[in-house]
Amino acid sequence: MEDDVVKAAVSELPEMSDEAVAAGRAKLLAAMRPATPVAPLRRRRAWLVATAVVVGVLVLTLVGPALVPDDSPKVGTATAAEALSQAATETGDVVLRPGQFLYVHNSTRVMSSANRDQDDIAWAYIADETYETWVPADQGQTWELRRTSTGAKTWVKGSPADVPKDLPPLMELGDWKARNGEFWGRSEQPSFFHPTPAYLAALPRDPRQLFQKLSAEEHGDQGADLLRVIGLGLDTGLIPAELRKSVYEALAYVPALQIVDDTADLDGRRGTAFGVTQGRDSVQLVIDTRTGAYLGSRELLARDWAGVKAGTVTSSSSLTSRVVGAMGSTS
């Protein structure tokens, strides 16, 4: 089989906070924001064990079709349910053979800010962060994680002059290698956004049961926090397709889910944004419903806040992945 693109059908410093954390990506971004002194960050390491390994060969299988269940999923609109059903019907196979790697590329943009209080910030900017991970077919072998940034900042409030000169770096760049993908020690407790093969294998494939399971992991949340967690899991690029299909169908049970943008753009790729608006934030997952590919996630301000305009994207993640022949290779 050709090495085709794998389609993902996808510290605190004193007086400092990350707006994306405030927007709810806490479980992810807490791992991205180092404590003082700055230490290597822990963003996606534990999630990247989400693949299935069979006799040393990693297999990601896109299977379907299936429709949204008939037992009355509480989707916000029938149109959203229909679109999710369409996204769940794609088929295809991608196999990682021994010696090959899955190259996962996450291009992110995250807002950082300094809070005066809950409803006011001194300054805020949006910066890019790129995460590249090489996952071996045999996950017990060595993985590689590379973190880079252009350093460019888009200021949405204040200016560089407002930032304390002794502020430590908010992100450490570098390149790390480790067996089992454990770049900073043992994996965290398995969950949808820190999955292990055993955890994923045990998840129910029935959409309603899967919705209930993921909601229970988020203390019963059925709104924005639940959607964030689902996005974090899909952002790994490694959720097996037969499970991803069930995840799409499970989204139909999120009561407030709506199609918020049918031409959402993530790094030049267009898809349908399924979102939940809660308080000041709109949490969205972007899916190409024609191909079933998960394109990424984003959060926007649903209303003006602390001098930042409504519609500002406070965080986003754009996912691509492909099979490569060697660690460090991108094609």
SSE inventory with pairings:
Elements: E1 16-18, H1 19-22, H2 26-29, E2 52-54, E3 57-62, H3 78-87, E4 92-96, E5 101-117, E6 120-136, E7 142-148, E8 153-157, E9 174-179, H4 197-202, H5 207-217, H6 224-234, H7 241-251, E10 258-266, E11 269-278, E12 281-288, E13 293-301, E14 313-324
Antiparallel strand pairs: 1-5, 2-3, 3-4, 5-6, 5-14, 6-7, 6-8, 7-9, 10-11, 11-12, 12-13, 13-14
Helix pairs in contact: 3-7, 5-7
Largest sheet: 11 strands, antiparallel
Number of helices: 7
Q: What fraction of residues sit in β-strands?
A: 35-45%
Fraction in helix: 10-25%
Number of strands: 14
Question: Span from first to last CA?
Answer: 15 Å
- Indicate the radius of gyration in whole angstroms: 19 Å
User: Element order, helices and strands?
Assistant: EHHEEHEEEEEEHHHHEEEEE
Could you give a short description of this structure?
Strands 1, 5, 6, 7, 8, 9, 10, 11, 12, 13 and 14 form an 11-stranded antiparallel beta sheet that branches. Residues 1-75 have low confidence and may be disordered. Strand 12 (281-288) and strand 13 form a beta hairpin.
Molecular structure report:
With 331 residues, the chain is α+β, with helices and mostly antiparallel strands. It is 17% helix and 35% strand. The protein contains 7 helices and 14 strands. Strands 1, 5, 6, 7, 8, 9, 10, 11, 12, 13 and 14 form an 11-stranded antiparallel β-sheet that branches. The chain has a 3-stranded antiparallel β-sheet with strand order 2-3-4. Helix 3 (78-87) packs antiparallel against helix 7. The longest helix is centred in the middle third of the chain and has 11 residues, at 207-217. The two termini are 15 Å apart.
